[in-house]
Specification:
alpha+beta; 2 domains
Length: about 210
């Protein structure tokens, strides 16, 4: 049986690039403050050097698609090296703090008046509020990877990527298992009482978000 896809607005590369820069800033702010608090300024400088060595310069005359792809690669490498640095220096306890502070950082990033209004809408019309949020998520997820949506209702969002972009990079597993499957799922649960599950098969993945 053929599954009809839900039409979603395509995000342009200039917006993808801008969003990726905000992800990089969020990573910087969160990880550097954690490392400074737990390990001190010397370790902050050490991590900064690791990041600098793994960062590719973005030319001003590059197209937005080129800028986005370079920034994307920088984000994957910085996230993986940050996680590994915290794990090597702070062990399992540090890993849990990394996840906890990442969730809190996402809450702060997404505490805009629009999301506050969405929470008010949910109290009056939960299905309408979820459908609005699901459309926003379908749009924003395009920063991470191209995707299609097979279901978008008042109770459920089902998005699928046949080839997740993040998995094309070395050391990408942390971005998949920690950033997407753990941190994002916990953020949705904590801030919006939504349940997110993933079904990854090789480089393809189906993400399902349900209203509880």
């Amino acid at each position: 049986m053929m599954i009809l896809m839900v039409e979603i607005k395509e995000m342009p590369y200039d917006e993808k690039y801008s969003s990726m820069l905000s992800y990089l800033k969020l990573l910087d702010d969160n990880v550097l403050s954690l490392v400074e608090k737990e390990l001190g300024a010397q370790k902050v400088a050490e991590l900064g050097t690791i990041w600098q060595n793994g960062t590719q310069t973005i030319r001003e005359d590059a197209t937005y698609e080129e800028k986005f792809n370079i920034a994307y690669g920088n984000w994957v490498r910085k996230y993986a090296s940050a996680f590994n640095f915290v794990s090597d220096n702070l062990g399992e306890n540090g890993v849990e703090k990394f996840k906890d502070t990442s969730v809190e950082a996402m809450k702060r990033k997404n505490s805009s008046p629009a999301l506050y209004l969405l929470k008010l809408m949910r109290a009056v019309s939960p299905k309408t509020a979820f459908r609005t949020f699901a459309k926003q998520m379908s749009y924003q997820l395009q920063v991470i990877t191209p995707l299609s949506v097979s279901e978008l209702s008042g109770n459920r969002l089902v998005a699928h990527t046949s080839h997740c972009k993040v998995l094309d990079y070395a050391d990408c597993e942390v971005c998949c298992t920690v950033s997407c499957q753990n941190v994002t799922a916990r953020w949705l649960e904590d801030q919006f009482k939504l349940k997110m599950t993933t079904n990854r098969q090789g480089k393809s993945c189906t993400v399902t978000i349900d209203r509880e």
